[in-house]
Specification:
Blueprint lengths: L2 H15 L2 H19 L3 H16 L2 H10 L3 H19 L2 E3 L10 E5 L6 H14 L3 E4 L10 H7 L2 E2 L3 H9 L3 E4 L3 H7 L13 H9 L3 E7 L1 H4 E2 L5 H11 L7 E2 L6 E4 L11 H19 L6 H10 L6
Parallel strand pairs: 1-9, 2-5, 2-6, 3-4, 3-5
Antiparallel strand pairs: 6-9, 7-8
Helix pairs in contact: 3-5, 4-5, 5-6, 8-10, 10-13
């Protein structure tokens, strides 16, 4: 008899020795304990939903006006209020430097991409509610293949983005948000917050062509809110580079403190190459990371900052 057959025989013998009825009795005894700990969680969830509803309700007049003026305007404002409330309640979300986004005229917002870009959703909501400006955004192609996402992308002006289409958006006077790191930075970045752009400089070509300011953006603790596991990262990275499949698992939604920082606008000059401008913007984001993020990131520290944060922002 081979070693493999011996192993299978041993495992089968151990399984036969299990007292199934005994384990059923243990499970029957444990279920009430588990349920008794889970049921109280319903109350905080209900309270959280009530808080979001009340936050949305206080914007009722502005929402009514938005629905009266534009078919999708009211829907955008309602979703924006929801995200603004969710960010404020769950993350104590704040933004520093919103005044650097112009009230009129084109600009480009270049941001560091967390595992999930919820900070960008919050910035879009803030701009819509406080500046009455809808930020256009560039999204990865796979977003448009997710069932139900295509309509949302259309309503919130998210597009795959080419140099030509991005230039057209800016020439029309809009604010355009781009994360050059994209899915690669989202899934394979880590708690050291390294900027992973590779050789991407398409956004810089657009900025030079349209002569618009570039505003660097970074959000403190964005990687402590949602994370990707460290195990198997190299194999998953290899698979992504071959097939472009974003199959890395994401976990978290921890209620950590989050603050978005917008840096000073960077203006392209005529003698700059796209690569030089991209490097300058990258240094701007790395400077924001160095000033506002403790590395390596730590979930417990970020959770404590949610309670103890004292910095006054505007």
């Amino acid at each position: 008899m081979s070693t493999e057959e011996n192993t299978l025989s041993y495992l089968w013998l151990q399984i036969e020795k299990l007292d199934i009825e005994y384990w059923k009795w243990v499970a029957w005894m444990i279920y009430p304990v588990i349920i008794s700990f889970l049921l109280p969680l319903i109350i905080p969830i209900c309270l959280y939903c009530c808080a979001i509803f009340l936050h949305v309700y206080q914007y009722r007049r502005r929402l009514r006006d938005a629905y009266a003026q534009d078919f999708w305007g009211g829907a955008r404002n309602t979703v924006a209020v929801f995200w603004e409330a969710q960010g404020r309640i769950w993350h104590g979300y704040e933004i520093v430097g919103l005044d650097k986004v112009p009230d009129t005229g084109p600009a480009m917002l270049i941001y560091y991409h967390g595992a999930l870009p919820i900070d960008f959703y919050y910035v879009m909501a803030k701009c819509l509610l406080e500046k009455r400006r809808q930020i256009h955004a560039v999204g990865d192609n796979f977003l448009f293949n997710i069932p139900g996402f295509r309509l949302m992308c259309e309503v919130f002006n998210v597009s795959p983005g080419t140099v030509h289409s991005c230039a057209d958006i800016l020439k029309e006077g809009h604010v355009l948000g781009i994360s050059p790191g994209g899915v690669r930075e989202a899934l394979f970045g880590d708690e050291y917050y390294r900027v992973m752009w590779g050789n991407r400089s398409g956004f810089a070509k657009v900025a030079i062509q349209t002569k618009v300011p570039i505003i660097p953006m970074f959000t403190m603790n964005i990687r402590e809110s949602f994370r990707t596991p460290g195990w198997g990262r190299s194999s998953l990275r290899w698979l992504y580079e071959k097939c472009r499949l974003p199959i890395v698992p994401i976990y978290g939604n921890f209620p950590v403190k989050m603050t978005t920082y917008l840096g000073s606008p960077i203006y392209p000059s005529e003698d700059m190459t796209a690569e030089e401008l991209a490097d300058k913007v990258k240094l701007g984001i790395e400077d924001l990371i160095r000033k506002h993020q403790k590395v390596p990131g730590n979930v417990l520290r970020a959770l404590s900052e949610r309670i103890l944060w004292k910095e006054k922002v505007s």
